[in-house]
Design a protein that fits this description.
Blueprint: H1 2-20, H2 30-33, H3 43-56, H4 58-61, H5 77-81, H6 84-93, H7 108-121
């Protein structure tokens, strides 16, 4: 009995470590990975995304998107290097191992607007205030 519990804890720990290091990216299908935001470089989309972010994402990622508690910063190198399609896939599917809910109930247009906002955070001249 103790061996089974120990094995379960070790497995769960390994899964959490894998999720924390960005291994979820390996799950993104190639077709999704290659998607490009229809709102790339559209300031109005980033502004709309900021409002959606504030309503849905800020409670975990912080109003400034720097992360809260054990939730990641969306200004990180991993997010900057992720493709639009990878982020879109994560928003749609979530990451249950890290407490990221899926936002598939949010219209796709709004998910792309959130991505436009996230991209504006990492832009040298964003024009969108967090």
């Amino acid at each position: 009995m103790k061996t089974g519990v120990l094995l379960l804890l070790i497995t769960a720990s390994a899964v959490c470590v894998a999720a924390a290091n960005g291994s979820w990216l390996k799950k993104v299908p190639k077709a999704d990975r290659e998607r490009v935001s229809p709102y790339s470089g559209v300031p109005d989309a980033a502004s709309a995304g900021r409002l959606i972010f504030s309503d849905n994402c800020a409670k975990c990622h912080g109003e400034d998107a720097e992360g809260k508690r054990n939730r990641p910063s969306l200004r990180s190198e991993r997010v900057r290097n992720a493709t639009d399609g990878e982020i879109a896939w994560l928003l749609k599917n979530g990451n249950m191992f890290k407490g990221m809910p899926n936002w598939s109930g949010l219209p796709e247009q709004q998910r792309w607007q959130v991505i436009a906002y996230i991209r504006s955070l990492n832009s040298p001249v964003s024009g969108v205030r967090p």
